[in-house]
Amino acid sequence: MHLVLFLIFALFALAGAVNLLLQKHPINSALSLIVVMSSLAVLYLLLGAEFLAMAQIIVYAGAIMVLFTFVVMLLNEGREEKTWGSHTAKTLGFPAVAVLLAVLSATILRAGRHYGMISLSDGVTTTQELSRVLFHDLLLPFELTSVLILIAILGAVALARKDNGEA
Amino acid sequence: MNTTVPAEWYLILSAALFTLGVVGFLIKRSLISIFMSIELMLNAVNLSFVTFAHEWHAVKGQIFVFFVMMVAAAEAAVGLAIIISIFRARGTLTVDQIDLMKL
């Protein structure tokens, strides 16, 4: 059961990510990114992170991607021109990316022998455990993020405002 | 029926998603698509955080993902505001035409 679910949603995530690269219109890329984020939420659920799975759907697939699609539709930029990068990107960039993936996979596979198997019966990290750590040990960082969000809201309003004449 | 999946499969999926994000960052020419590739990379790293949190039964790994989500939300709000203001000033989102700061 776990294996089947993992394979299905890992495939969805990879297909969505590849589709994000291939699509020419930003709105199609945004929709594929929503597919990736929703499949990641299911994978979090398989890993027993129930709170994060819900937060992933609400914050990422919900709030952030609504913001993205909103901006794409507001600006209505249209199709991006098809360029496959400069000569430097072809000769240097893609081999570098391939090396990056190879190094990451090799490191993971070498270290992976010590890792265990993940099963659905491993149990979940409850929201209670999570909030105990969050509100006892990490209360100050948590409060600081609220300040960060407030500053981000003010910054977004200041940057996107029309009537100051300098934007 | 309760099959198991090795932890490294999750990590390799995370590495593959991260690499696809890097490729998107390199080949995309629209500012918004590049921004979406950055979000994809953030998500890929989050997946490996959750995997390690499960592997070592450490709640702090999940807390870290929570904070990454908060920072990503703030970053998306400010970044999209910057994109709107760039579009208003230059009338385009193609990165090849937004190169005033290039040497």
Description of the structure:
The complex is a heterodimer of chains A (167) and B (103). Chain A has 167 residues and is an all-alpha fold. Chain A is 75% helix and 2% strand. Chain A has two domains: 2-79 and 88-125, NADH-ubiquinone/plastoquinone oxidoreductase chain 6, subunit NuoJ (Four Helix Bundle (Hemerythrin (Met), subunit A), Up-down Bundle), CATH 1.20.120.1200; 126-167. Chain A contains six helices and one strand, in the order H-H-H-H-E-H-H. The mean pLDDT of chain A is 87. With 103 residues, chain B is mainly alpha-helical. Helix content of chain B is 76%, strand content 3%. Chain B contains three helices and one strand; from the N terminus they run βααα. The longest helix of chain B is centred in the C-terminal third of the chain and has 32 residues, at 59-90. The termini of chain B are far apart. The mean pLDDT of chain B is 89. Classes of the chains: A mainly alpha (167), B mainly alpha (103). At the A-B interface, helix 1, helix 2, helix 3, helix 4 and strand 1 of A face strand 1, helix 1, helix 2 and helix 3 of B.
